[in-house]
Amino acid sequence: MYRQFVRPGDLVFDIGAHVGDRVAAFRRLQARVIAVEPQPALIKTLRLLYGRDRNVIVEATAIGRQQGAVELNVNIDNPTVSTVSNDFIAAAAGAPGWHGQAWPKRVRVPVTTIDALIARHGMPAFIKIDVEGFEAEALAGLGRAVPALSFEFTLIQRDVAHLCLERCGALGYARFNAILGESQKFAHDDWIDMDAIARWLGELPPEANSGDIYARLG
């Protein structure tokens, strides 16, 4: 699936790398990867897995609209939904499919921007953003479009996904597609425009839960 965006030697930003499953996919495509992850335990895992790979750099930071520091809310039982977004936690409270989720631990972590990553590492061919409700803030820190990107959406925060689409439009992205859950299969046979993907997003039933929207130039 990623082969249409990534060629051998390309640079990829994996923002919200977790334990590196997407890093592995990008490396199989012979891409160079900047793996961005704020959770201390997962940073250790990434460094154990990829510390000897000169084509993977682990950045221990959150991503936002400006540099600084922020409180990371850690879901100890389900680290994949740890988040710096208090709005995300509020939206999950009592929502179907989110019962029993808790974020009892808080850790202060650094924040940088996508633009700062580009200044440090170069322009990527593709950016994957999966940061549990902070996707719009991450995209706010991108000042110039890269060839293609993806961002996660959750239906408990459909408004955040629409903000991401607006930002993509402002950056010049014209064609969109989407994947529901972890299916790795695009929802549309052909790439569609922003109005069409926004309508599709608005019509999804709550039980669809989450997915990723892909944006590309032209």
Q: Short description, anyone?
A:
This protein is an alpha/beta fold and 218 residues long. Helices cover 29% and strands 25% of the residues.
Walk me through what this model shows:
With 218 residues, this protein is α/β, with parallel strands linked by helices. It has a single domain (2-155), classed as 3-Layer(aba) Sandwich (Rossmann fold). Helix content is 29%, strand content 25%. The chain has a seven-stranded mixed sheet, with helices on both faces. Strands 4-6-5 form a three-stranded mixed sheet. Strand 1, helix 1 (21-28) and strand 2 (32-36) form a beta-alpha-beta unit. The two termini are 19 Å apart.
Separation of the first and last Cα atoms: 19 Å
Q: Give the biggest sheet.
A: 7 strands, mixed
Q: What is the fold-level CATH name, i.e. the topology?
A: Rossmann fold
Report the principal-axis shape.
globular
Q: Mean of residue pLDDT?
A: 97
Number of strands: 10
Rg: 16 Å
Count of separate DSSP helical elements: 7
**SSE string, helix = H, strand = E?**
EHEHEEEHEHEHEHEHE
CATH C-level class is Alpha Beta
Instruction: Tell me the quaternary state.
Output: single chain
Beta strand %:
25-35%
Main-sheet strand order equals 3-2-1-7-8-10-9
Q: What structural class results from the helix and strand content?
A: alpha/beta
State the helicity in percent bands. Answer: 25-40%
CATH architecture label name: 3-Layer(aba) Sandwich
Low-confidence stretches: none
When the domains are counted, the total is 1
